[in-house]
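We treat protein structure as text, and this decision shapes the records that our systems exchange. Such a record has a labelled line for the sequence and another for the backbone structure tokens. The record that follows is passed on verbatim for readers who wish to inspect the format:
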Amino acid sequence: MLNINAFFVGLLFGLGLIISGMTDPSKIIAFLDLAGDWDPSLIFVMGGAILIGAVAFTIAKKRQRSLLGAPMQLPSETELDKGLLIGSLVFGIGWGLSGFCPGPAVVSAASGQPKAWIFVASMLSGMALYSLIERHGK
């Protein structure tokens, strides 16, 4: 049952990305182009997501189980470490160069965009490389 619900929530998320135009890399690049033809629309999408997320996390912190009965699994780390900062920097550079972040890339790949497939393959390769390094580094 949880997998079916996750599927529909993911579908809703993907639909939101499509409606907001966030699956179009040129829209993301236009947002990041402060010196050119800047498109501020991403601020409103991010602002809406942050607002909804803040409310959801406030409610979730008070619960032991999700609405579907699964145990709540909220992050416990509160410290910024070197790995998080470096990872954020690499993520931002990749986002700025490609115009994709993971969610919109998967949606765009599903719609058949070749650039998105290349991004998703690169993202999965990076994740596999990280797992390999983490496993052998410990």
